[in-house]
């Protein structure tokens, strides 16, 4: 084999070793542990399907997965609606490239703090005696505090939308900035209305950004457990939270089985998105 044929393999070797050590090996370990057995004090290396059987046949598990999918669907729809219009405004209504960059950086300011801090900051605002309830009562809009604002599904969705909207804004903004403005001018010269330009030109060309943002948001929501734990007040559940509780109880094989199922589910969702939008072809 000549040197020219060996060089590409040598160049790919470091990345291959890194992926094998930090991606393939951990996933293989989780899959292996998911077939082990356990009791209240220890785990046993074995090859049993008990963990998968208990997970698949449990009504509680099905309810938890459906609840997680509900969060993913609602948060995806809201972040897409908010993220698209924020990106659209930055790309088409802000003419100065400098101002576009400044406003985009303003959107990233919350990321200078921890996710947990940003999430917990909603508690004094949404609480029974929080700023929002007190303001509404002072204005006479309500007679008593709104209980659903905190420690509810509403609070969980609100916090997730706040945390993950930028993951939708960034790829959509990047895609919109790549659209040739001559296409929009041509559509306008052809007599297309603003709505027709949006639906027939801009949105189809923005599909790669929407797909990438959707993958980011869906995968983050499906694996989230801290937000559900804090913002629901223990009144709701997610797959990530269920796995965290299993780990706390030293039920590592059961948690590993749930991790494998969750990974397979997320991969199917990502594959469905990529099936709808061929990112490589569109970019």
Automatic annotation (TrEMBL):
It is a multi-pass membrane protein. Keywords: Cell membrane, Membrane, Transmembrane, Transmembrane helix, Transport. Its main location: membrane. InterPro entries: MetI-like (IPR000515), MetI-like_sf (IPR035906). Residues 65-273 form the ABC transmembrane type-1 domain. One of its GO terms (cellular component) is plasma membrane. Signal peptide: none annotated. It is found in: Cell membrane. GO terms for biological process: transmembrane transport. The chain crosses the membrane at residues 12-36, 71-90, 102-126, 146-169, 252-277. Pfam families: BPD_transp_1 (PF00528). Belongs to the binding-protein-dependent transport system permease family. CysTW subfamily. This is Spermidine/putrescine ABC transporter permease. It comes from Ancylobacter dichloromethanicus.
């Amino acid at each position: 084999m000549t040197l020219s044929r060996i060089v590409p393999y040598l160049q790919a070797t470091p990345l291959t070793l890194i992926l094998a050590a930090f991606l393939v090996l951990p996933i293989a370990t989780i899959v292996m542990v998911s077939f082990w057995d356990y009791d209240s004090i220890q785990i046993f290396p074995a090859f049993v399907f008990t963990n998968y059987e208990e997970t698949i046949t449990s009504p509680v598990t099905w309810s938890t997965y459906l609840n997680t999918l509900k969060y993913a669907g609602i948060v995806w729809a809201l972040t897409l609606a908010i993220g698209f219009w924020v990106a659209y405004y930055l790309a088409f209504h802000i003419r100065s490239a400098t101002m576009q960059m400044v406003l985009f950086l303003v959107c990233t300011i919350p990321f200078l703090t921890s996710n947990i801090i940003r999430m917990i900051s909603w508690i004094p605002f949404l609480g029974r005696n929080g700023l929002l309830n007190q303001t509404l009562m002072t204005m006479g809009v309500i007679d008593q505090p709104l209980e659903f604002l905190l420690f509810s599904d509403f609070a969980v969705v609100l916090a997730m939308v706040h945390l993950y909207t930028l993951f939708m804004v960034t790829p959509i903004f990047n895609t919109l900035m790549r659209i040739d403005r001559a296409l929009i001018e041509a559509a306008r010269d052809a007599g297309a209305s603003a709505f027709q330009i949006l639906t027939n030109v801009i949105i189809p060309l923005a599909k790669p950004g929407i797909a990438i943002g959707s993958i980011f948001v869906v995968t983050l929501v499906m694996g989230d457990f801290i937000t559900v734990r804090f913002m629901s007040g223990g009144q709701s559940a997610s797959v990530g939270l269920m796995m965290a509780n299993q780990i706390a109880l030293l039920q590592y094989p059961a948690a590993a089985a749930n991790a494998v199922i969750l990974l397979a589910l997320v991969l199917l969702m990502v594959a469905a998105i990529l099936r709808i939008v061929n990112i490589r072809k569109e970019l």
